[in-house]
Fold:
Amino acid sequence: MSFVVYVDLLAACLAAEFWRDFLILWAGGEIANRKPRPGGLFLGAILGSLYYLAFLLITKGDIPLSPWFLAVLSLIMPALMVLIAFYKNDLRLVLPMVYLLALLAGGIGYWLSSMHVPRVWVLLGPHVAVLVVAEIGWGLLHERFWESFGQIALVIEIGDKKQVIRALIDSGNELIEPVSGKRVIIVEKKVLKSLVPDDVMDSLEKMAPFSTDSSYEDWGRRLVLVPFRSVGKNSGVLTGLRPDAVYLKHKGKQVKLPGVIIGLENNPLSQKNEYQALIHPSLLMSSSGGEQRELA
Structure:
């Protein structure tokens, strides 16, 4: 039995399937907090699209295949896509989310096709459903948007050394050093090891006194203790350092921030190491019109 294939419609269906599979794999990895391997999402979505093409040709061409075989293959395919996109040990974490989102997308697509709506909605509806569920259930869209566009590059200078880090603009960081009234930028301690001598860093980590050697007098003057209060912890003290300067990278220039304190945080601030510091937006506004220099 012959059948007609409309190439433009087939291309549109394959493109829609590719992006749907891509979104499902991306959302599944984000929910499970697992990073894909380089190019993994693309390869996994390609595999899904090829399977979809084979499925269409088989079903439209009336090729006799057992429904059980197709059902088993449909269950195996997401596992193969996750295996290609991620890693073997991520299957048990990512796969349940991928199955859930794939069932949702498939159900929405089937429902829209039965409603006799325009074909474009049948193609785009599953994509919208995946994005809406990812946002409502886990807040992935606005979280990724904020982490991408709510970050800035900072240059911290101590002595003749400098370190470039990424900071997240965080209005929740209200920490102020009470004596000087300076804002505190929270920075992961590990990223400052290139600026701080090993002996000084060891003393800070152990909360032990500095060496009495005269070469450490400058570090003693830089040290400051910042009291804080946080949710789940009544009070505490954060070790801070006074840097020589902190610059914001902006439009090819470095803009000096007003006097700040660097608060040292022992734990990672971002699970995926996307930023290493937290800075209050008021510091960015107060830097307007400050000292500038060409970006080195």
The chain has two domains: 7-145, 150-294. The first strand starts at residue 151 and ends at 158. Residues 30 and 140 are 7 Å apart (CA to CA). The mean pLDDT is 80.
